[in-house]
Amino acid sequence: MYRSSDKRGFRHQVLIMFHGTSPTNVESFLENGFRASRDGILGPGIYASTEFDKAAAFGPCVLKLLVYVGRVCKVDGQGHPLQKSWQDKYDSAWVPPNCGITARQVSNLFQIKTERE
User: How confident is the model at residue 12 (pLDDT cuts 50, 70, 90)?
Assistant: First the structure.
């Protein structure tokens, strides 16, 4: 992980993260880049984990990513007020381990907002 702070005290972080997917999707990523999912526990976006094993649960091919997370919204429970509406004020969202969100979600999950061209 890389961290630095600017003059205003904003902390910049670049994390090594992993994205699990199918072999078919890897080819599409290489040709077309990532596309946001239509929905998920944190709404539409690109999901990645800081833990390799967690990402591997989503597919046999695991991509290693360098991710600038920007301003991060901590979503620490089901029904969090910003669970699916964080995108207006934050660059990414994070689900910490053991916070009560279950199903196909993983701990240490970030959702990365894509830039529009």
Answer: confident
How far is CA 47 from its chain centroid? 4
Taking CA atoms, 84 is separated from 52, 70, 80, 110, in Å, by 25, 17, 9, 13
CATH number of 2-112: 3.90.228.10
What's the one-letter identity of residue 5?
S
What is the tens place of the pLDDT at every residue in 67-79?
A: 888 888 888 888 8
How many Cβ atoms from other residues are within 10 Å of residue 113's Cβ?
Answer: 18
Q: Where are the beta strands (DSSP E) in the chain?
A: 2-5, 11-21, 46-49, 61-68, 72-74, 92-95, 109-112
- Across 50-57, average pLDDT: 89
> What is the structure's pLDDT at 13?
81
Distances from the Cα of 60 to the Cαs of 36, 41, 45, 96, in angstroms?
19, 21, 20, 24
Q: What's residue 22's pLDDT?
A: 94
